[in-house]
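Deviations from the work plan: none for this task. Representative record:
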Amino acid sequence: MTKKQKKVFVRIIISAVLVVAFGLMPIEDGYIRLALFLIPYLIIGYDILKKAVLGIVNGQVFDENFLMALATVGAIILGEYTEGTAVMLFYQIGELFQSYAVGKSRRNISALMDIRPDYANIEQDGELEQVDPDDVEIGTIIVVQPGEKVPIDGVIVSGVSTLNTSALTGESLPREVGEGDEVISGCVNLSGLLRIETTKAFGESTVSKILDLVENSSMKKSKSENFITRFARYYTPAVCIGALALAMLPPMVNMIMGNPANWSQWVIRALTTLVISCPCALVISIPLSFFGGIGGASSQGVLVKGSNYLEALSETKYVVCDKTGTLTKGVFEVTHIEPAEGVSDNELLETAACAESYSSHPISRSLKEAYGKQIDASRISDVEEISGHGVSAVIDGRKVSVGNVKLMKKLGISYTKPQKAGTEVHVAIDGNYAGHILIADVVKPNAEAAVAGLKAAGVRQVIMLTGDAANVAEAVAAQLGVDVVKSELLPADKVAEVERLLAEKGSKERLAFVGDGINDAPVLSRADIGIAMGALGSDAAIEAADIVLMDDDPLKIATAMKISRKTLGIVHQNIVFALAVKFACLALGAVGFVNMWWAIFADVGVMIIAVLNATRTLKS
Amino acid sequence: MKKTYKIEVDCAACAAKMEEAARKTAGVKEATVAFMPQKMKVEFEEGADESAVMAEVLKNCKKVESDCEIFL
């Protein structure tokens, strides 16, 4: 508890003891009773009374301090000393609980995001010195010992180690790093000593950016939050006016009708409604729920840049995915080798790799990678690139042609058509067909589960956009269970496609675009929700997207949707529950079925339940 | 020009009041108060003197919520 909270706690104890003690004393005299009860009342309520008076002076008439002051003072004037003091007492208990619960979840979330490094080690005259990471200039060599956090982004100049990136990505598998590798701040060094040359200032480093983003996410408020703020602005004055009417009108009507006025009965009912109506439960529980949801998501490696995006995510019905780098690894690999008769797999691959060894094209690179052995350049001569077709060369004295279908047709060599999708590389040796090799982008291991997960989370359509050839795109789409696939799109076509979908969808439905954040910034910003994945270390993606997946796992999109649905579910539960209890109690209170004790439950009890419910968002 | 300030406020409704008070202050283009992280983000009008505007914002906030604090 903070100092402020402790002080309130002590006041609560003292006045509670006094109320009970005075309540048990057999004092008949009204004035002595009043004088005695004023002691605990003022101990517990002096700050509320002060705020209420200041509020009136400053033109802030109808707030909850005013409600409480009016209700309790009114009760005391009517001789209900115990009730008057008790209302104030329970109101303060509720406030204390609320401030304690809020403080606790704030700390819990900070602990989830406990990635802020406190210091950086700099080697000076052979000794390590701890300095403030803010003071470290770009290009400084910093030392990270096992067990320490990497404080600033940089490149390893010496040392080998494994890094735990779980605080950033939610990924538990450690990452192996060595000399020359880039490292990102916020990772924890697990095994070896690392010397790192910093490439960024602390303020520009990944860890600072992420913390900044998470801390500021509450600034972008959700519709629910704005609704409640607006609601409270009209609700409290409306209740006060209603209570005034309840206190004045029925007795006046009674007087006109010639009946006894019954002033005290109606004033008590009016005061009861004032206590019931306090809007705290709503006003506090909603930002608390969103804060918890965003905190829970970030512990899973999903950064949500605002409560509004978390809210929109729960309404997402269309998910548009980029293919390369999002659903697939974006790395081309040899997926199939189909040699002609009399040629071995290895011979075919070796021939193709040798012929392509002078090229740096991605296709050549994947051929060389699949071959895996060092290529002896002296075996290869007379390399000739045939633009748009392929390459020809002389290898070990044999004339080899490697290329696409067009090359085979040009050379008049009959070839077999591949059964599977991918980029085809046909090989001919000395004019005879030797077979073909297929190269394709490989689907991410979790991509299929991710598409299924999105469907399970209520997404109506998963759409895949790609610049790739139709046969490749359709093969991937069929494998993953994607609903719609659009292929051979230029970047501008992707924007047009997303715009068309945005125009088509219903007004309550949201469209999310998922990309790798490298060249799809325009689409990311055009969609209702832009989700960038694999964004660890990519400033552009963090900048452009609304939701950032820190690792490459597409399954996290479904995780984020689940968290968003849970959060929104809790928010709606709280709104409905609090309003239902309050309106029920208000209606019953107005006709006299609810006494002051019920009113206290409707205020403080509902608030405590709503706050406890809201803290559930933290657990995921 | 946007700046973020650390604040101290006890209840969410009070935070909403501070937000409105800050928005109404001359020289403030837009203001947002986030209760959970206890922060206030202020966007100033072009050419406004930040420290003078913030002093005024603090005064206006104190009026609507005597218990609040902005750490300037």
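The mean pLDDT of chain A is 85.
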